Amino acid sequence: MSTRQTAPEETDASVVVVDYGLGNLRSVSRGLERAGASVTISDDPEALDDADGIVLPGVGAFSEGMENAGPFRDALAEAADAGKPVFGICLGMQMLLDSSEESTRAGQGEAHGLGLIPGTNVRFDADLDVKVPHMGWNELDVQRDHPLVDGVDGQYAYFVHSYYAEPDDEHAVVATTDYGVHFPSIVANEAGNVFGTQFHPEKSGETGLRILRNFVDICVESDA
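^ Imidazole glycerol phosphate synthase subunit HisH, sequence as received from the core. Prediction below:
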């Protein structure tokens, strides 16, 4: 097990970035530091216990992500149940759901997600007149209130993905983005402490930094 800790001169919250072998750990960590967090990158599930908030990053395949993150499954579920903020980014957001079409399409059988937000992940329909993967800047259309999206309605964020979340409960959709279909680009659980962005806030300029600052504020205000 390994843990690496970095912190800006003034910190508002302690955040653990989960290291399960997939994800832009350094860029996510730098973004969180700019947002005011003390950041620990760790592959030890026990590191989640004392954190004010948890970030699950990710780039790659759903099945590989779930296999690698297996040791964190119980710790993430316990943190979520305790009300601790859990923030999934890109693949990390997809892993918050129950499953993904990606695994069955790849002939790998069904891979079970974390199940923290009921639903599945689906691929952009081949009949849509769009290129897949969806890559580049696109607009965020906020659908309901959530502290993560304070000040970002109508702003643009950076996406790289072929699959997107389809939550069972439409109230789980916090924001949508139009790419041949209006897909959920930000989702959250009913309690509001587990949420994710399909885009990369760490690559989304001032909009992304605002979202990361909102996340840090959520961590500060959380009692978990």
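The mean pLDDT is 94.
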